[in-house]
Amino acid sequence: MPDITAVTHAQNIRYDRKAEALYIIDQTLLPGEEKEIRLQTIDEMVEAIRALRVRGAPAIGICAAYCMYVLAKSIRTEDRPTFLKRLSDYGQQLDAARPTAVNLGWAIREMMRTALEHVHDTRGQMLDALYERAVVIHEDDIAKCRAISEYGLSLLKEGDGVLTHCNAGPLATSRYGTAQGPFLLAAERGMHIRVFADETRPLLQGARLTSYELQRAGVDVTLICDNMASIVMKNGWVQACFVGCDRVAANGDTANKIGTSGVAILAKHYGIPVYVLGPTSTIDMACPDGDHIPIEERDGEEIKTMWYEKPMALPEVKCYNPAFDVTDHELIAGIVTEKGICRPPYTKSLKALFDDKK
Predict the structure, then answer these.
(1) Where in the sequence is the active site (predicted)?
(2) Cα angle 167, 170, 176; round to 5
């Protein structure tokens, strides 16, 4: 049986309370180098999120919670209105770094709510409450990822081939991950699943991160270019597509890494089910549909120069570089959450998740 401990229990985000320091694994250096960096200032935190040193919607949320705690500690005033204003301003700066991932704003709001709840406590008591809330957010994601992975694995059988796009494993979340979690659980249990990982242009998260994690975990993984998805589906090598998500609208439209909607369209043509895996914190019931999801647009230099010694296009060539696209709910066979698998119509099944008081 493969040893997946090093992967599934990697601490992509950790707060060392003894050293009073927040560390993340710099994902821009993987797979060549696994290195932790320390985040201390708002500028360092915003840069780390924007530059994808920390990435994946759940991981960004976890990181943001710890960031808010670190920033709260840095505010040296006993005047509570001033404290709350500065902390809120820091939160807005963090939130603006990646506008598509709903977990980022959610975690910031949770930390601000905690600060408000303890506004009349001593400074030490408030900081303790903020730290404890960040830990709860982190531990809650670990539990959710395990549950999502179990539900996802229930959709697969021995020998299935699964195509995945981008990275939704331990590095993007915590422990098992979301869309990759079922593959890691399968490996633990001796179940053979073949995974085809899209490289995920232009930042190559599938090549640099997904294939790295799965290979280390002993999963049967094959790396393919994004434009090879059609042929592996046509060859009959793929029985399902598993992808993560950065935001799910109330009608089931889903934002995920650019290229996901193309995968879903191809899968529809070949009769292959597409499953979206993510925690309920990624579901934005205030967002009616995909047209209302803000799509981050990134620097075109990521396309032309990022991975090459020489530019791959003339300097004057324009680039369009959206970080995400929206997959229509009609292309999605199921949305897998920690509470179970939602099926169409999503306006009802997603709403039921939040109506459940159990």
Answers:
(1) 246 (proton donor)
(2) 115
Question: Has domain 5-145 been given CATH number 1.20.120.420?
Answer: yes
- In angstroms, the CA 351 to CA 81 distance is 36
- Yes or no: say if 259 and 198 are a contact pair by the CB < 8 Å rule: yes
pLDDT tens across 24-39, in order? 999 999 999 999 999 9
Task: Find the helix packing angle between 123-153 and 102-117, rounded to 10°.
Answer: 140
Residues annotated within the binding site for substrate are 55-57, 98, 205, 256-257
Query: CATH homologous superfamily for 155-355?
Result: Translation initiation factor eif-2b; domain 2 (3.40.50.10470)
The answer to whether 183 and 222 are in contact (CB under 8 A) is no
Domain map of the chain by residue range?
5-145, 155-355
**Residue 2: predicted pLDDT:** 42
Catalytic residue among 26, 95, 198, 246: 246
| 348/156 Cα distance (integer angstroms) | 25
Q: Name residues of the chain where pLDDT drops below 50.
A: 1-9, 358
Indicate if 160 belongs to the active site: no
pLDDT at position 308 is 82
Q: Which of 326, 240, 243, 323 shows the shortest CA–CA distance to 284?
A: 326
pLDDT for res 357: 53
Retrieve residue 82's tokens. Answer: 């001033």
Q: How far apart are CA 64 and CA 351, in angstroms?
A: 26
Q: What pLDDT shows up at residue 323?
A: 97
> Tell me, what DSSP letter sits at residue 291?
G
SS3 336: strand
Closest of 18, 13, 58, 60 to residue 38, by C-alpha: 13
Residue 322 has what pLDDT? 98
State the pairing for strand pair 21-25/13-16.
antiparallel
φ/ψ (deg, to 5) at 163: -100, 135
